[in-house]
């Protein structure tokens, strides 16, 4: 045993055995070894200890700096000021250091406890465990697992050969090149995690998180800042995110629950589940199914491989390219959906919004109670609903259905490749339907006719008759009553209104125009007649060239005064008009007319005049002087025989109360 006075630093090298250094309260340094120490001397403010075949034990004051290298055995250092240790063949255990610790080339395991300064550990063949460091920690090139706990500073861990556990970090954490799984929790700053060969789990982070290139499942929870997740080999699970989320290139499923910010997701291999988002959602390229619930923002979706389900979305919705079925429920904003490959199920609140949906398959639309909705639908299949105007049916028909519920404030345009079912207890305030087909005649019937002009003329006459019989017709249904109209009938009603107005029936034309406008049908426009060509000049004759005195034209006789109009006879009360369905069968009960009626199968071939509508019309579109005067004008037209009671009932119903 050799004793030296206290010095600032001890330099130790070439120890073939173990090295043990213990701090104590004495103001001296005591050195012991089981073999001779060839170099043991004071050199300035340092003590040099080197070249021994045995192990060395040194007791030093607490404020001593330890610099040691080339230790063949284990190194244990405790309760000193600072440690700089390299080239240790065994394990390194260091605790209670009042300043920084630097470790390089440790062939065994490393254990550090209660380090008051920063830590740097590099080229550790074994595992590393750091508990309680008051400064920044940098760990790199570790052959086994790494455990870092209780660091009052930032952490950087690179190239860790096995599992990595980092928790209770009062700073940022940057971790990458992890040979197996990585787990980070309770980080007060941000987290960057990259190149993890297995699972990655990050929880309770006060800042943002970036995860890139995780070969297995990535799980994030209780993240208070923004999140970026990219290139995940398996699934991505995110819960409780306080900022915006960007999710890109996920190999399997992905789920996001509880995000207080916008969400952008792209290139998800399988399913994507999104719930409880306070922000906009944008999703592209989902391999299979997409489910969105409780979204408080706008939604934009594109290229969904299979099914799509949206529930309770407060903002606008833009959807395109869905491979299979789509279900919308609790939609409160504008909805535009195109290229839906399967069926549609729509249950929306329809709150003064304007929506358009194009679906290749069938469509089921549930009408909510007390709805204020206008529906304009073009359907290739059948149409079934409560109190919908019937239409002719054909094997290859395009059906046009116009429905108004309540005041019609919201607008829904549907293009349905299959069948349309309208479900609900509400009856439309007005309903019209029409259809157009292309099979009213068959060109195969022309095969085999005699190729002479007379037969050809007869055949073309028959074809022309078939086409002319496919005139435009429109079915209108209001309050469980139905009328069938065609352009000629509408034109006659308008002409009668014009004539009545010219003959003193005040408000007749305005009343008819207002009624047709409320039915979403503009008054028919007659095509202008072509101008008559001028008569060609005639060559003069001799008689015409002679000067002949012009005979005077006698004056016209005065027009006798009109006789006073006879008082109008009191009108007989009108019999209520039967619905069109009961014209052939008066035994049809009222209850049967309220059942859902198919509108789709083909019965006669007709090409209808479709009524296009871009906006929901107001209930009154003309500045009419008095609604009561309009109704009186309609009643006078009925009494004078200008229109039928049937037509008058339609106009009065269309004018409303």
Question: If you had to describe this structure to a student in words, what would you say it looks like?
Answer:
The protein has a domain at 1-108. The protein has a 26-stranded mixed sheet. 12% of the residues lie in helices and 45% in strands. It contains seven helices and 50 strands. With 657 residues, it is mainly beta.
How do the helices and strands line up, and which of them pair or pack?
Layout: E1 2-5, E2 9-15, E3 19-24, E4 28-33, E5 37-43, E6 46-52, E7 56-61, E8 65-71, E9 75-80, E10 82-88, E11 92-97, E12 101-106, E13 110-115, E14 119-124, E15 128-133, E16 137-142, E17 146-151, E18 155-160, E19 164-169, E20 173-178, E21 182-187, E22 191-196, E23 200-205, E24 209-214, E25 218-223, E26 227-232, E27 236-241, E28 245-250, E29 254-259, E30 263-268, E31 272-277, E32 281-286, E33 290-295, E34 299-304, E35 308-313, E36 317-322, E37 326-331, E38 335-340, E39 344-348, E40 354-359, E41 363-366, E42 373-379, E43 383-385, E44 397-405, E45 410-416, E46 420-423, E47 430-437, H1 453-469, E48 474-478, E49 481-485, H2 487-502, H3 508-518, H4 542-545, H5 590-593, E50 597-598, H6 627-639, H7 645-655
Parallel strand pairs: 2-6, 2-8, 3-7, 3-9, 8-10, 9-11, 10-12, 11-13, 12-14, 13-15, 14-16, 15-17, 16-18, 17-19, 18-20, 19-21, 20-22, 21-23, 22-24, 23-25, 24-26, 25-27, 26-28, 27-29, 28-30, 29-31, 30-32, 31-33, 32-34, 33-35, 34-36, 35-37, 36-38, 37-39, 38-40, 39-41, 40-45, 41-46, 42-45, 43-46
Antiparallel strand pairs: 1-4, 4-7, 5-6, 42-44, 43-50, 44-47, 47-48, 48-49
Helix pairs in contact: 2-3, 3-6, 3-7, 6-7
């Amino acid at each position: 045993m050799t004793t030296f006075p206290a010095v600032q630093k001890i330099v130790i090298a070439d120890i073939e055995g173990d090295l043990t250094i213990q701090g104590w309260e004495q103001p001296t340094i005591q050195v012991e070894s089981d073999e001779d120490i060839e170099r043991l001397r004071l050199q300035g403010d340092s003590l040099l200890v080197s070249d021994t075949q045995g192990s060395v034990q040194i007791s030093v004051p607490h404020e001593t700096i330890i610099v040691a290298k080339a230790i063949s055995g284990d190194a244990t250092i405790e309760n000193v000021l600072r440690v700089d240790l390299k080239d240790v063949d065994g394990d390194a255990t260091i605790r209670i250091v009042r300043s920084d610790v630097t470790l390089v080339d440790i062939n065994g395991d490393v254990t550090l406890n209660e380090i008051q300064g920063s830590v740097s550990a590099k080229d550790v063949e074994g595992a590393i465990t750091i508990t309680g460091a008051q400064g920044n920690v940098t760990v790199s090139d570790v052959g086994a697992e790494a455990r870092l706990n209780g660091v009052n500073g930032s952490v950087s861990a690179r190239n860790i050969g096995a599992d990595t556990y980092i928790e209770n970090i009062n700073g940022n954490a940057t971790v990458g090149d992890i040979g197996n799984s990585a787990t980070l929790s309770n980080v007060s700053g941000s987290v960057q995690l990259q190149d993890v060969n297995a699972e990655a789990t990050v929880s309770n982070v006060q800042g943002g998180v970036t995860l890139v290139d995780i070969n297995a499942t990535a799980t994030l929870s209780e993240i208070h800042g923004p999140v970026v997740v990219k290139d995940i080999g398996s699934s991505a699970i995110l819960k409780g995110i306080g900022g915006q989320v960007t999710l890109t290139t996920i190999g399997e499923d992905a789920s996001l629950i509880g995000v207080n910010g916008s969400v952008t997701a792209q290139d998800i291999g399988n399913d994507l589940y999104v719930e409880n988002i306070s922000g906009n959602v944008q999703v592209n390229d989902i391999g299979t199914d997409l489910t969105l619930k409780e979204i408080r923002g706008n939604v934009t979706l594109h290229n969904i491989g299979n099914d799509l389900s949206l529930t309770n979305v407060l903002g606008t919705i833009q959807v395109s390219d869905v491979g299979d079925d789509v279900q919308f429920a609790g939609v409160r904003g504008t909805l535009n959906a195109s290229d839906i490959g399967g069926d549609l199920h729509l249950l929306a609140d329809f709150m003064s919004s304007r929506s358009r949906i194009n679906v290749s398959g069938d469509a089921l639309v549930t009408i909510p109670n007390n709805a204020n909705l206008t529906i304009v639908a073009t359907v290739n299949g059948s149409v079934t609903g409560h109190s919908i105007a019937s239409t002719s049916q054909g094997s290859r028909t395009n059906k046009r259905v116009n429905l108004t519920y309540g005041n019609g404030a919201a607008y829904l345009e549907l293009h349905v490749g299959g069948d349309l079912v309208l479900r609900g207890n509400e009856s439309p305030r007005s309903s019209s339907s029409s259809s157009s087909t292309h099979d009213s005649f068959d060109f195969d019937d022309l095969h085999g006719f005699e190729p002479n002009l007379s037969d050809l003329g007869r055949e073309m006459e028959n074809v022309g008759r078939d086409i002319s019989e496919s005139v435009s017709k429109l079915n209108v249904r209001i309050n469980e009553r139905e009328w069938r109209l065609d352009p000629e009938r509408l034109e006659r009603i308008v002409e009668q209104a014009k004539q009545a107005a010219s003959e003193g029936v005040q408000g007749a034309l305005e009343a008819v125009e207002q009624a047709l406008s409320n039915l979403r049908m503009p008054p028919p426009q007659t095509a202008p007649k072509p101008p008559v060509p001028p008569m060609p000049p005639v060559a003069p004759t001799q008689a015409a060239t002679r000067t002949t005195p012009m005979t005077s034209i006698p004056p016209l006789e005065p027009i006798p005064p009109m006789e006073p109009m006879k008082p109008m006879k009191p009108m007989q009360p009108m019999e209520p008009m039967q619905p069109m369905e009961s014209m052939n069968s008066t035994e049809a009960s009222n209850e049967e007319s309220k059942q859902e009626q198919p509108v789709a199968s083909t019965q006669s071939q007709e090409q209808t005049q479709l009524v296009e509508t871009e906006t929901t019309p107001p209930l009154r579109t003309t500045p009419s002087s008095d609604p009561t005067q309009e109704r009186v004008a309609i009643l006078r037209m009925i009494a004078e025989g200008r229109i039928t009671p049937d037509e008058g009932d339609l106009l009065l119903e269309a004018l409303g109360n």
